[in-house]
Amino acid sequence: MKIIKDLFKYHLSFRFGAIILLLIFLLATLSFFSPYEAAKRRVVPKNEAPSFDHIFGTTSLGQDVFWILTFAIRNTLIIAGLAVLIGRSIAVILGSFSGYVGGTTDRILQSIVDSFIVIPRLPLLILISFVLKGELNFLHLALILGFLDIAWPSKRYRSQILSLREQEFTYTAVFSGMNTFKIILKEHFPFFIPYLLADAVSGFLWAIGIEITLAVLGLCDLTTPTIGTMIYWGNYYQALLMQRLWVLAAPVITSIFIVVGFYLISTSLSEYLDPRTRLKRLGTRE
Amino acid sequence: MNLLKSYFLPRLSQWLITILIGVTVTFILPRLLPTDPVERTLSTLSSLQTMDPRAVESLKEALEDLYGLGGSPFEQYINYWKRLIRGDLGPSLSAFPTPVIEIIGAGLPWTVGLLTCTIFISWILGIVLGTLAGYLPKKLWCQIMDKIFISIYPIPYYILALILVMAFCYHFQVFPLVGGASGKPEISWSYLSSILWHSFLPATSLIVGSTAFRFIMAKALTSTIIASDYVNYAETAGLSRWRIVLFYVIRNTLLPQATDLGLSIGGIFSGTVITEIVFSYPGIGYSLYMGLLQADFNLILGITVFSIVGIATAALLVDLSYPLLDPRVRYK
Amino acid sequence: MQNRSKLIILLGLVGINIILLTACKDRANTTESTPSSKSQLPVDLPRQDILVVDQIFRYSVVENFNLWMPGIPSPTRQGLIMDSLWYIDQETGQQINALSTASPRYNKDFTQMTVKLRSGVYWSDGVEFTADDLVFTVNNLKSNPGMLWSTELELFVKEVKKIDNYTVIFELKDSNPRFHYQFTIRYNGVWMQPKHVWQNVEDPMTFKFNPPVSLGAYEYADSDPSGYWELFKRRKDWERATPGILTGKPGPPYIMSVFYGDSGRKAMAITRHELDMVQNVDYEAFQAILKKTPTARSWYKEFPWAYPNEQSARYFGFNLGSETVFSNKDVRWALTLALDIVDLQTEYIGGVARVTAIPHPASPPQMELYHTPLESWLKELQIEIEDGIFYRPYDDAVPKKIAAWAQKQGHSMPSSDEELRLLFGTGWWKHDPKIAERLLLKNGFTRNTNGEWLTPDGELWTIKMIVAPDEVEIYRLAIGAQDQWADFGLKLEIETLQRDPYYNRNLMGEFEAISSWSNASDGDATADKWKAIFGLHSQFYTPNGKSTATTGSTNTLRVKSKEMDQIIDELDQIHPEDDRVVELGREFMKLWVENMFSIITISFKNFTTVDQYYWTGFPTNENPFVQPLYWFGGGRFTFQNVAPAAGNTPKQ
């Protein structure tokens, strides 16, 4: 906890990222206090540009963009967060296990993982959504997205592990009699974690991106507000062509902020945790 | 001989097994779809021309015969492999009896051309820029680049593509709205340059996002290396910055980056549906999408087989090249 | 120091992003969009020689003109290179004698049909079209099951005989007064095959018929290997094809179909003057076109703009295949009365369609045959609210109410009732939630303390409705219903589906409620209702769980009605030009409406848009001489009438 406080006080990137994320989470929680229900239409005048009454303007269906955005942020964070959590956890376990154990087990596991990779994911997702005949609510979606994002990351983690395994300090530790588990935890993970954090951000972004792609193709439940469905409905009513940019700008800029926030936090945290840069910082601190 | 056995053989068998599993899964999955191709054809026909209801039963039987959907699923599976080995992907069911290979052949060169170029360009660009930014984090232009990329990267691809189209096809009417090229396909400057012209916007949209991703990855990887001993030593020894970046830093980050490159290249066979839809660009992504919508088993399987073989082969090649890239990698 | 600069840079970049997005704003108020200096069509021909039309979708199969195979694309091409015996113009309802010179002649019991063919019609390779071609086509299709119309011809035709070069007699297996419908083109029908080409073909199903020997006024010139466009060239001997013969006009030198993408992209193409005729765009894209392209217009020059005469209508349907709350006619009526059609048609559709209370498209010729004559009956129609208490639900003031809304939006409206009815339809049901409430109370429904409805079982009443959002109107109508029924106290859940799962569930009967189109409300531009309702007969009835596509049934709502069967049986036996046909049509509509089997809302509308920058001669409301539906078979005549606009001098 003290670490977080210190980081906040002294590290600008972290502070900035934390502020952005706090804002995002604040917006998400505001959704519980929204004066309008997410599903209600014609509660405000249609197609109005941003003004004092409606800070982000209104949609073609008479909804307040700001309040819909709060719901969208909440739902998208849940979907992407859940997907990344499920996916990356399984990927780490799978990749590390495969990388450390090696041999035939590694070979077999890699064959299975490869068979997941070789099947293109977007068409697979489209197929699944058809097979389920459209009964794809957003919790199911999060689960499926998580499972689909295991293969590539686990391969990446495995290759990281493979090169870490051959480093000098690993041999040193082995020869010094450290048991395998301790080596993994104490020697390798500090190198691994920065990579994991940066990769998790990309996983988060993939989940958001795929959710948007699915929404844009009209394949998920279009009645729950998410970043993706806000973009879909914006386009449906030709926001760009009719120059009602606020409807699209709001979700897009929000997703930019979400990712920037996570990115800043993850790079500052990894900078802090990485033993090599920590040394460097100590050395060059003014 | 020993090398062959302990090194190549296991990897080759892995390659084969992957393809086998991949094809089997792709064979099974579309058959789980609620629509079957015969029904799909019948419902399209009835919505267009009001088929006489009394004639429907016999048409249904005729189509089932034609589409080769008789026999148990297992028999169909074996038949499929028999044809596949001969290179025959079967007829498309939604555009019967056009062979699947013809439909693929029309779009594949465009997808491969566009995606190969964009993948390579963004890979090189992203790695070079990202490594530099990771190595020289204090330089102003590196910081600016970092901020630019981090704020472009999250823009959803679809929106980026739309903005490009709106800006350069509508408000500034610079680029063409449809197609991959103009004029007759031939080896001439006008035709080839029209290909470049038509592909400029789609390529840009793809490169921007991929470069950003590659940049961020490279920067993260570099940051784990810059404090290592050998880099310190190289700096102390007074080697030029460029040498250090190219030969020491980048080479050590190559392993995961090469993996990504290989898998990306393999992945081009599934095409990019969104690019084709937004830019009206030719390719097989849209064919695959329509095949899914229309439960065209053969078309789905045909295109996915390319993807499966492509990615599996790419993974094999990358795996085989690990020792070349990182001499420290040894195998038990 | 550097940390602060980081902050500034980050803020600046986000700001730039925002500016970039908003920079897509229109530069100043351009009153007229200037055409691009170089038209970027993918073919190297002078722009003023080409009529560019919307291809509607991207072809997945190219360079294949075997239009007798299912799966080979038909729109637009069929009008340019194919031909058949008769056409029904979808706008005027007139029969056009193309390859035949007169209506088909039947014997007394409709087991024999005689056809007289036109002389002087030539294929594009110089061979004359004769009876040999017709006879060959019929026999060729019959022997290849799996080709289009093969199974119909096999079902009906015993023998087809050539009497002389221009006379053919069909011997039918059974009495069929509508056999000639196979050769009467509404959307499509049996196209003629050139015998001299097809007789040498080994496998007709895999034959690509490329280059196609054309019987239309155009021939194939070029196409895009990726399916985005196709180019057709006017035949040098265009006066020897039926469009040229019947109209005497040459048509544009080239016609090119291009698929630009969705509505937004089509709008861009029109503004760039790279697209002359569009099948349909959505409401917002159309508004954008109007703003930026003064030479573009739809059917009406002003509001309500859209082409309202396509032969179908939209409805809300309920699955009647199993015992549910919807099996009760009173419940269906209650739901109808809880709707406010004026609100639906104006706030959700934009006021641009005609309402229709009966299952039939509301185009002017059809309104004369059905809507107007039935009005007195509709006004007198009564439903029983409670024992002995009756209520008249019809409201003929609907067009006036819509006009009032339109005036508030700033559109000038005609004053006469007649003109208003032509714009907005004749009338619909009243919006009367109080009566609806009484109907529900009578049938065991109750309201809880929140005012929400409970079913007779005591459950909160929720209805699940499936919708495909990319069929824009049915989606907008559905959300309108959702809002209105919510005000009434019941919850409508909308399930958004992609097209194919939507069609599939509709055909399988896997839905509770649906927002859809066609079904009983189809028309074919003539007085005959047979095509729309024959498939509703109980002999084809398909229960829930089995797809109606495999049985030929069109009864996706699974309606069971003995009276309906009787009407269909009688209609099937009489000739389509018999007077009784209209009477039976009206009886059918009365039956449907009394029982409210489905809630018919609005008649079809399309923003079929044309740009008069290069070309003119398009049909409009001021001059509705031919159908604007160029992608139908009858589009051949639409194309033939297109002429260069003033100031456009084609090189050919």
Keywords for this structure?
heterotrimer, B: 332 residues, mainly alpha, MetI-like fold, 13 helices, 73% helix, C: 652 residues, alpha+beta, Dipeptide-binding Protein, domain 1, Dipeptide-binding Protein, domain 3, 5-stranded mixed beta sheet, 16% strand, globular
Topology overview:
The complex is a heterotrimer of chains A (286), B (332) and C (652).
Chain A: H1 2-10, H2 12-30, H3 65-101, H4 103-117, H5 121-131, H6 138-148, H7 151-165, H8 168-175, H9 180-216, H10 227-236, H11 246-273, H12 275-284
Helix pairs in contact in A: 1-2, 2-3, 2-11, 3-4, 3-6, 3-7, 3-9, 3-10, 3-11, 4-7, 7-9, 8-9, 9-10, 9-11, 10-11
Chain B: H1 2-28, H2 37-49, H3 56-67, H4 73-85, H5 100-135, H6 140-152, H7 157-171, H8 189-223, H9 229-236, H10 241-266, H11 273-279, H12 284-293, H13 297-325
Helix pairs in contact in B: 1-13, 2-3, 5-6, 5-8, 5-10, 5-13, 6-8, 7-8, 7-11, 8-10, 9-10, 10-13, 11-12, 12-13
Chain C: H1 2-22, E1 50-54, H2 77-81, E2 86-88, E3 95-97, E4 105-106, E5 112-116, H3 131-142, H4 150-156, E6 157-164, E7 167-172, E8 184-185, H5 195-198, E9 218-223, E10 229-234, H6 242-247, E11 254-258, H7 263-271, E12 277-278, H8 283-292, E13 296-297, E14 313-318, H9 329-337, H10 341-348, H11 364-380, E15 383-386, E16 389-391, E17 394-395, H12 398-408, H13 417-424, E18 428-429, H14 433-442, E19 446-447, E20 453-454, E21 462-467, H15 472-488, E22 491-496, H16 499-508, E23 513-517, H17 530-533, H18 562-573, H19 580-595, E24 598-603, E25 609-611, E26 615-616, H20 635-640, E27 643-644
Parallel strand pairs in C: 1-11, 2-8, 21-22, 21-23
Antiparallel strand pairs in C: 2-3, 4-5, 5-7, 6-7, 9-10, 10-11, 12-25, 13-25, 14-23, 14-24, 15-16, 17-18, 19-20, 26-27
Helix pairs in contact in C: 3-4, 7-8, 9-14, 10-12, 10-15, 11-19, 12-13, 18-19
Explained architecture:
- Chain A is mainly α and 286 residues long.
- Chain A contains twelve helices and no strands.
- Chain B has a domain at 108-293: MetI-like fold, CATH 1.10.3720.
- Helices cover 73% and strands 0% of the residues of chain B.
- Chain B is globular and about 90 Å long.
- The model of chain B has no long low-confidence stretch (mean pLDDT 80).
- Among the domains of chain C are: 87-196, Dipeptide-binding Protein, Domain 1 (Dipeptide-binding Protein, domain 1), CATH 3.90.76.10; 313-603, Dipeptide-binding Protein, Domain 3 (Dipeptide-binding Protein, domain 3, Roll).
- Chain C is 31% helix and 16% strand.
- In chain C, the strands form nine sheets. A five-stranded mixed sheet of chain C has the order 22-21-23-14-24.
- The N and C termini of chain C lie far apart (72 Å).
- Residues 20-38 of chain C have low confidence and may be disordered.
- At the B-C interface, helix 2, helix 3, helix 5, helix 6 and helix 7 of B face helix 1, helix 4, helix 7 and helix 16 of C.
